[in-house]
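Quick one:
INPUT:
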């Protein structure tokens, strides 16, 4: 799989960008040239220069440093929200797909109801109930991801529970939990890997959108969506704040999409010649 990924130029570019982002997230205190929260009103809305390569915002804070520190927040939001969706969605999908019956019908109805709402609208409703904050955004995006993961795992479980190796496991006396964990769940892993990669970009973009609306990270947290929200009032005087921040969000989302598309092409047996 790694060999095939390296042959795909777009996937290779995406992997390189993701590795750079992970490095910045871990080493941001040492890589950032300035304190992301330090204000200098005398340097506010300064254009890009040698001291501030990407300029400063309305409060004189270094944009480059805030973007670097924002990498940590955005990737954390994506990982935790995807973890919530994967944990609860995969568990519900396994139980419903393997046992069927009333549990399967209830889960299918719940998935249909949740999938009927636009994703951003559902996340907005959840954050509106829980209140603004970065942690609540993680919960909202994670809850939104639960039915998507449950639907994928349920479909794989429904098609796998009647296969020969599952029937053989039942014949030798294996219990339902062991069959789900050792026989059905491994069959779901390729689809889950692809879905996690693609949902990572969606989670980052949704969290940035909620922060842009003032429902996510609160000032002065250097989160990308919050930075875009703060730069709205100075688009004409200092367009570089919104431009560079939006460009970083675009590149990050595109990188995860490149890797996710390549993994889908590699792991999906229907796309193999």
């Amino acid at each position: 799989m790694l060999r095939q990924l390296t042959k795909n130029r777009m996937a290779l570019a995406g992997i390189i960008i993701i590795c750079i982002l992970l490095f910045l997230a871990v080493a941001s205190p040492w890589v950032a040239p300035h304190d992301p929260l330090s204000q200098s009103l005398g340097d506010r809305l300064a254009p890009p220069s040698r001291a501030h390569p990407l300029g400063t915002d309305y409060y004189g804070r270094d944009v480059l440093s805030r973007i670097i520190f924002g990498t940590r927040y955005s990737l954390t939001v994506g990982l935790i929200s995807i973890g919530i969706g994967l944990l609860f969605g995969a568990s519900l999908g396994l139980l419903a797909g393997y046992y069927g019956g009333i549990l399967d019908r209830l889960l299918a109805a719940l998935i249909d109801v949740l999938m009927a709402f636009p994703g951003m609208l559902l996340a907005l409703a959840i954050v509106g109930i829980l209140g603004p904050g970065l942690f609540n955004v993680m919960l909202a995006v994670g809850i939104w991801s639960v039915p998507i993961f449950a639907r994928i795992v349920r479909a794989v479980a429904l098609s796998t529970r009647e296969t020969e190796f599952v029937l053989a496991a039942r014949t030798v006396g294996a219990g339902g939990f062991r069959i789900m964990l050792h026989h059905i769940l491994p069959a779901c892993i390729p689809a889950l890997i692809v879905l996690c990669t693609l949902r990572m970009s969606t989670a980052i973009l949704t969290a940035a959108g909620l922060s842009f609306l003032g429902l996510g990270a609160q000032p002065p947290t250097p989160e990308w969506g919050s930075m875009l929200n703060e730069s709205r009032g100075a688009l004409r005087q200092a367009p570089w704040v919104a431009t560079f921040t939006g460009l970083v969000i675009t590149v990050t989302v595109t990188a995860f999409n490149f890797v996710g598309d390549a993994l889908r092409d590699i792991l999906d047996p229907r796309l193999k010649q």
